[in-house]
Design goal:
Radius of gyration: 20 Å
Strand content: under 5%
Largest sheet: 2 strands, antiparallel
Number of helices: 12
Shape: elongated
Strand order of the largest sheet: 1-2
Length: 239
């Protein structure tokens, strides 16, 4: 079924925020360099055993991060590999934390590594886990994740979910991020790309679908309204 949330209290606030008590921080909560997503078999399968972490407080690990960043920038291995991209992003973030600045990190990595390169990928590493998991699964291209990381707050989540559900291209993600950074609301920026915020296609068990439709009809409500009410209650109870 396909539906959208009504424009009521359950819809995104004009500022792109979520109702009080909902959601989670739009920035990384785990330690820098820790392979939380890459080491999860549920996301990366057997490759989870190959996950490499980077400790910004360990000189040897910082050196490994520097070598990884340089190889990553030269694209010598793992091109178009989402998990490899996340590893490179982790190395960028750990290297910056380990040496103290983007400039020092670029100098430590050497080669043609630029401050801009390290900054962009370190931001990807700083995205919240819920978004990084979709990058690892291939639902969000790493190049799109770089633009999602350019915006802050709940706009990050809205843009990420619009990318997954609305099939936004990397170019469209970049345009939305630019619009938001220029002062446009995330809702308007997405609307300009033909994405109606809140629309989602769900597959339900037949018996649940039947009952949803029956109750919505008897109550003179849309299926989306019934689902929104149920989810509001669920999220509030689990907050």
């Amino acid at each position: 079924m396909t539906d959208s949330r009504p424009d009521d209290a359950a819809a995104p606030r004009p500022d792109g925020g979520t109702p009080p008590g909902w959601g989670s921080p739009a920035d990384r909560e785990e330690p820098v360099g820790e392979p939380v997503v890459r080491a999860d078999p549920a996301v990366t399968g057997e490759r989870a055993r190959e996950a490499v972490g980077f400790d910004p407080d360990d000189p040897e690990s910082v050196q490994l991060a520097a070598e990884t960043v340089r190889a990553f920038s030269e694209n010598t291995v793992g091109a178009e590999d989402n998990v490899y991209m996340l590893r490179g992003a982790a190395a960028c973030a750990a290297l910056v934390r380990g040496v103290g600045s983007y400039k020092a990190a670029a100098e430590r990595a050497g080669g043609d590594v630029s401050v801009s390169f390290i900054r962009k990928w370190a931001r990807v590493h700083d995205l919240p886990q819920a978004i990084r998991r979709h990058v690892a699964r291939g639902h969000i291209a790493p190049t799109a994740a770089k633009h999602i990381a350019r915006v802050s707050g709940d706009a990050r989540f809205y843009l990420a979910w619009a990318t997954v559900d609305g099939g936004l291209t990397v170019r469209e993600v970049r345009q939305v991020a630019s619009g938001v950074n220029e002062g446009m609301s995330i809702r308007q920026a997405l609307a300009d790309q033909g994405v109606a915020l809140g629309e989602l296609t769900l597959t339900l068990p037949p018996e649940v679908y039947l009952e949803l439709r029956r109750r919505a009809s008897l109550e003179n409500r849309s299926p989306g309204d019934v689902v929104s009410e149920a989810l509001r209650s669920y999220f509030s109870d689990s907050a």
